[in-house]
Amino acid sequence: MQDLLYFFQQLINGLTIGSTYALIAIGYTMVYGIIGMINFAHGEVYMIGAYTALIAITGLATLGITWLPLVLIVALICAVLVSSSMGWAVERVAYRPVRGRHRLIPLISAIGMSIFLQNYVHLAQGSRNIGFPALIEGGFQFGSEDTFPMSISYIQITIFITTLICMTALSLFISRSRIGRACRAVSQDLGMANLLGIDTNRIISATFVIGASLAAVAGLLLGMYYGSVDPLFGFIAGLKAFTAAVLGGIGSIPGAMLGGLILGVAESMTSGYLSGEYKDVVSFSLLILILLFKPTGLLGKPEVEKI
Fold first, then answer.
1. For 139, phi and psi rounded to 5 degrees?
2. Taking 60 as the threshold, does the pLDDT of residue 21 lie above it?
3. Per the UniProt record, which residue ranges are transmembrane (predicted)?
4. Are 83 and 153 in contact (CB under 8 A)?
5. What does the DSSP assignment read for 199-256?
């Protein structure tokens, strides 16, 4: 019974982290699905969302506003607005001027934007870790103190519910809205969509905005879960989310969701049964193993060359 409770504890921890990886990974996979490029500045957009939420929470606390629902809603709105604006700016500054050129040029441009944003936050907020207030405390505990007390915290439940709502809303938006149908058309054939009257520039900008908004949600959730943020907060999470997107199949939204969950569970199980020092080794080894047998990822589809 103790071993079973310990297993489920690691599973819950892995699904918690994996859910946020999935939210960030969607930004990578949507941009790649639309324009066939990797937005390496996406991790920094997520980091800026976390800092914005922290600043909003601190400002409300200074004003004496401590009602939890209001604090969370205001912090989320501020984070989404700033991150989505940053995502739009990244597309306009780093991608649109070099779109259509050799793929190496937008890649270098995105890496340059990533370094710029990281150092901007480093100068503006300092290099030290900043504590993120634990707004949601408490949880449920199962088992007894004599064996292994499995617990699931309220913040973990919040992460699960928020991720489920975001994923459902995104799926409905992509499948039923006019902009969502335009996104699917542009991802299939950008040139033909342009000829048919779709404003492809607007659709590409909308893709960056949607991905940045989801990253802002993940920034707020992970900030509360870990309890601190720093300028490298986005680089590590962005790298893991990109790995999750490739693992599930870059360009596939369900693949990004699945890849994030698998990566989170793999890291948690490794930390729980081996050592936290090996979690990255196991995660990237799993990625290599899957790509050896399925190069397009778990749910990815091979690209068909149009001639």
1. 170, -170
2. yes
3. 20-38, 45-65, 71-90, 102-121, 154-174, 203-226
4. no
5. -HHHHHHHHHHHHHHHHHHHHHHHHHHHSEE-TTHHHHHHHHHHHHHHHH-TT-HHHH
Burial class (CB in 10 A: 0-12, 13-18, 19+), 74: middle
Contacts of the segment 192-200: beta carbons below 8 A, 24+ positions apart = none
For the chain, the structural domain boundaries read: 2-125+152-293
Total residue length of the chain? 307
Can you say how many angstroms the Cα of residue 243 is from the centroid of all Cα atoms in its chain? 11
CATH (residue range 2-125+152-293): 1.10.3470
pLDDT digits (tens, 9 = 90+) for 108-160: 888 898 899 989 898 888 888 889 988 888 888 877 666 677 888 999 999 99
Confidence tier at 214 by pLDDT (50, 70, 90): very high
Q: Is the pLDDT of residue 97 over 90?
A: no
